[in-house]
Amino acid sequence: MKMKDFALGVVTGLAAAVIIKEMSERVSPYQSPNNILTTIKDEFKKQAPIDGSWIYMKTEQFNNGFTETPVYRGGISRMMDGEMENFEFAADARSGAVVELKQV
Questions:
Q1: Which three-class secondary structure state does DSSP give residue 17?
Q2: Which of 79, 32, 29 is nearest to 52 (CA)?
Q3: Percent of the chain residues topping a pLDDT of 70
Q4: What CA–CA distance (Å, rounded) separates 28 from 16?
Q5: What count of other Cβ atoms lies within 10 Å of the Cβ of residue 102?
Q6: Dihedral sign, CA of 92, 93, 96, 101?
Q7: How far apart are CA 44 and CA 103, in angstroms?
Q8: Is the per-residue pLDDT at 37 higher than 90?
């Protein structure tokens, strides 16, 4: 094999590696926080109307004692039987599944 062909192969491989790295960083492994909030609100709306909701747009680590999971934290307010109920939740950033829900 000629040195010129070898060098061309190395340069091509490096260029491909850089392009793949850049493209993988642009694609987020997490779901959109707004989509997760909409899904959670839809589930709450099945029981009672929603008065308000919020979600932090940045992930944080949630430890359940076994593993750490990136989550979005948020909250929902609703009227149920004339009483205001407030809930806070943590939703898995990858799947959108609620991993913690507590009434405050």
A1: helix
A2: 79
A3: 96
A4: 20
A5: 10
A6: positive
A7: 13
A8: yes
